[in-house]
Write a structure and sequence with these properties.
Layout: H1 2-19, E1 36-42, E2 47-52, E3 62-69, E4 77-82, E5 87-90, E6 99-107, E7 110-111, E8 115-119, E9 129-135, E10 140-145, E11 153-161, E12 164-169, E13 177-180, E14 189-197, E15 200-201, E16 205-209, E17 217-220, E18 229-234, E19 244-250, E20 256-258, E21 261-265, E22 270-280, E23 285-294, E24 301-303, E25 313-314, E26 320-325, E27 330-335, E28 341-346, E29 359-360, E30 366-370, E31 375-379, E32 385-390, E33 400-401, E34 406-410, E35 415-420, E36 426-431, E37 436-441, E38 447-451, E39 454-458, E40 464-467, E41 480-483, E42 486-490, E43 497-501, E44 507-511, E45 518-523, E46 529-533, E47 537-541, E48 547-552, E49 561-563, E50 569-572, E51 579-583, E52 589-594, E53 604-605, E54 610-615, E55 618-623
Antiparallel strand pairs: 1-2, 2-5, 3-4, 3-6, 6-7, 6-8, 9-10, 10-13, 11-12, 11-14, 14-15, 14-16, 17-18, 18-21, 19-20, 19-22, 22-23, 24-55, 25-26, 26-27, 27-28, 29-30, 30-31, 31-32, 33-34, 34-35, 35-36, 37-38, 38-39, 39-40, 41-42, 42-43, 43-44, 45-46, 46-47, 47-48, 49-50, 50-51, 51-52, 53-54, ...
Length: 647
């Protein structure tokens, strides 16, 4: 009996197994084909997914789409689409939330594995910016900046008194201002601007004003700091005595400007009485003043990677500075007003930017080289990589950039590259020999290179002009300077500095140093050449090659000096007490300020009259009350953009 019962159980189990679908069989696992190439493209409150079935495989009966978000206020969800569909749009999402999407093929015998992608939907209903209202007598002048979009739109401007809309205006889409009349003095009005698109409205922009409380002008930002760009705008509702034909500004810091809308950087902090004077068509004048409270510097030190041997470079407007970081490998951008780090572009895959400072082109693009694989890179002011050009060897010499759109790079095989700044393509290249030292460009566009084997000059078109003296130019850029038809190069060993005639390539003179390598020559307005010796001395050599003075400032230094407009030479000590020193025209030395930390980067006097320097882990700036000199070759890279070019 027990034997018959056991046989019955076995037969029952076999029937149950046979009645199940092959979903649980081994072979079925290989028949659920996972999708390929899933992409997610953001839209306005929606994301469009696109995928592909495996090539040559059968379509599933459906696709299952699931999504979750990074924020609790943006719920997840699911949807299904037919098996012959390879794209789907997920709607009613929350703009600004990051979603993770998955797509699975659903076969009769089960679901495939997941393909995932992330995406963040963003609004395309862009609002106006810089929206403000300026009060006049029984009227208010409203102005704005148009939305940055290619979509068609209209404006709706509502005037609200209390909680009631008393006027609705529809300015033309091309308008950026509107004068609203017939208002009551002493009553506060709210002006609400909405940009109306075919697919919905933008977020509202609001501003309030009380007619009768008339300001002669407005300015942004409302709480400016010293050396920050401030936009001043005339209030046409204030000046109503006639047609305004000219506007003059006095900013109470020794600077003036003309125009209805001007941009100014204050060179003084405190409460400044800014004056705005207009001239009417009949020749009469009307002036008004306002107190503008200008804040002091927002920072003196900010966290930053170690910029070993690389100079700090500024944007043309002075509001941003760039530096190499030798720790994380790359280029970083900082807000010069707040000290905030804006972005970083990593070069970890191509090597460090040690000794290779960035240069800023005419359009604000930042150019720099890498030492690992040997590349030159171009990055937009927003931190977006524009192009990379591969060189034969490591790029150790700081690049030179002309205003005509040419980037010159020198690699460690002694090859000079002429590169189009627009797209990174190579115009021409020429090879000499020796490890890279420096590359500079004169006002006519002629190029000069120095390596560990000598000095050469080429025309802008790539023709060799001359071969100069066989000398060892110091490596890693910033080793040459130009002044009054003479090329100066800092040399290795005890070479000191050499002067070369830029027309013929003949050596005019050389002044040897006492101990070791020399770095970063600068030239003052009278032709005096200043250079530093690694052993810790600063030399001043006259234009005729005779010594003016030699001053020991440290036991070790190779970061270069900067010539101030006040006639002093500024240099930093690499060893204790880690001070920035200033050297007078007679060679006498005094302390400008103490850093307290080691720095290997060349110092620079920024547009805000502060000396910028980099330590291991921070970037500092301290005021010296002077700008960099404007004559000669006053600092590493020639100017605050480190272009290494007179053209």
């Amino acid at each position: 009996m027990k034997k018959i019962y056991s046989i019955f159980l076995l037969l029952t189990a076999m029937l149950m197994l046979n009645s199940c679908s092959d979903e649980y069989s081994f072979s079925s696992l290989f028949d659920r084909y996972q999708t390929e190439a899933l992409t997610a493209v953001s839209g306005d409150e929606q994301v469009t997914l696109t995928w592909a079935p495996q090539s040559g495989k059968s379509n599933p009966k459906e696709y299952l789409i699931l999504w979750t978000s990074s924020v609790a206020t943006a719920p997840g969800g699911s949807m299904r689409v037919a098996g012959d569909v390879t794209t789907a749009t997920v709607e009613q999402l929350v703009n600004g939330a990051t979603y993770t999407f998955s797509v699975q093929a659903d076969y009769p015998h089960g679901l495939s594995g997941k393909q995932t992608a992330t995406c963040t939907p963003k609004s395309t209903r862009i609002a106006v910016s810089e929206y403000k209202a300026m009060a006049g007598d029984k009227r208010v002048f409203v102005s704005w900046k148009a939305p940055e979009t290619s979509l068609a739109y209209t404006y709706k401007l509502e005037v609200i008194e209390g909680e009631k809309v008393i006027k609705t205006l529809t300015p033309e889409p091309t308008a950026t201002s509107c004068l609203i009349n017939d208002l009551t003095n002493g009553i506060e009005y709210t002006f609400v601007m909405t940009v109306v698109y075919a697919h919905g409205n933008s977020d509202i922009s609001t501003s309030t004003a009380t007619p009768g409380e008339v300001a002669p002008f407005s300015y942004l930002p409302n709480e400016p700091r010293i050396y920050e760009l401030v936009k001043f705008e005339l209030n046409p509702a204030y000046y109503v005595a006639g047609e305004v034909v000219s506007v003059a500004w006095d900013f109470a810091d020794g600077q003036n400007a003309v125009g209805e809308n001007v941009i100014h950087c204050f060179t003084k902090s405190g409460a400044l009485n800014v004056k705005c004077e207009v001239t009417y068509a009949d020749g009469s004048k009307e002036a008004a003043t306002m107190n503008v409270n200008v804040g002091a510097f927002a920072w003196a030190s900010t966290n930053g990677d170690y910029a070993k041997g690389s100079s700090i470079t500024f944007s043309h407007d002075g509001q941003t500075f760039y530096t190499a970081n030798s720790t994380s490998k790359g280029i970083s951008a900082y807000n010069a007003i707040t000290g905030e780090k804006l972005w970083e572009v990593s070069t970890a895959s191509d090597g460090t930017v040690y000794g290779e400072g960035p240069a800023v082109g005419k359009d604000g693009t930042i150019y720099f080289g890498t030492e690992g694989t040997g590349t030159v890179k171009a990055v937009s002011p927003a931190g977006v990589l524009k192009w990379t050009t591969k060189l034969a060897k490591a790029c150790k010499a700081a690049p030179a950039v002309t205003s005509t759109g040419i980037v010159y790079a020198l690699d460690d095989a002694g090859t000079l590259y002429s590169i189009k700044a627009s797209d990174g393509s190579i115009n021409w290249k020429a090879t000499q020999s020796g490890a890279a030292g420096s590359v500079v460009v004169d006002a006519e566009g002629n190029v000069y290179i120095g390596t560990a084997k000598g000095i050469w000059s080429y025309t802008e078109g790539g023709k060799l002009r001359w071969t100069g003296p066989t000398v060892k130019v110091t490596e890693r850029g910033g080793s040459m300077a130009i002044h009054n038809g003479v090329l100066y190069a800092a040399l290795k060993g005890k070479g000191g500095v050499v002067a070369v005639d830029m027309t013929t390539g003949t050596q005019k003179w050389a002044y040897a140093s006492s101990v070791g390598d020399c770095y970063n020559p600068v030239v003052t307005s009278d032709g005096t050449v200043i250079f530093v010796e690694k052993a810790g001395s600063v030399y001043a050599v006259k234009a005729n090659g005779t010594l003016k003075w030699k001053t020991p400032v440290s036991s070790y230094i190779y970061t270069g000096a900067v010539a101030g407009a006040d006639g002093y030479i500024y240099v930093n000590q690499y060893v204790s007490p880690f001070s920035v020193l200033k050297i007078a025209a007679d060679g006498s030395v005094s302390e400008a300020f103490n850093i307290g930390k080691q720095t290997m980067s060349p110092i620079v006097i920024g547009p805000d009259q502060r000396i910028y320097y980099s330590t291991n882990g921070s970037i500092g700036a301290q005021s010296v009350g002077t700008n960099a000199a404007t004559a000669g070759w006053p600092l590493h890279g020639f100017n605050l953009q480190s272009t290494n070019s007179l053209k």
